[in-house]
Amino acid sequence: xxxxxxxxxxxxxxxxxxxxxxxxxxxxxxxxxxxxxxxxxxxxxx
Length: 46
Prior knowledge:
The protein is of the alpha+beta class. It has one domain. The chain is built from 2 helices and 3 strands; from the N terminus they run βααββ. It has helices at 6-13, 17-26; strands spanning 3-5, 33-35, 38-42. A 3-stranded antiparallel beta sheet has the order 1-3-2. It starts with a strand and ends with a strand. 15% of the residues are buried. The model has no long low-confidence stretch (mean pLDDT 93).
């Protein structure tokens, strides 16, 4: 499975990076995972 960084996804979805990080941490973004303090979002959600 391919992933986007939280920065790439935030740019693609036109939302703030910190808002997206918070959503990932709360479990709102299905399949998001944190690797070495960097959130990775499955590409199929874009």
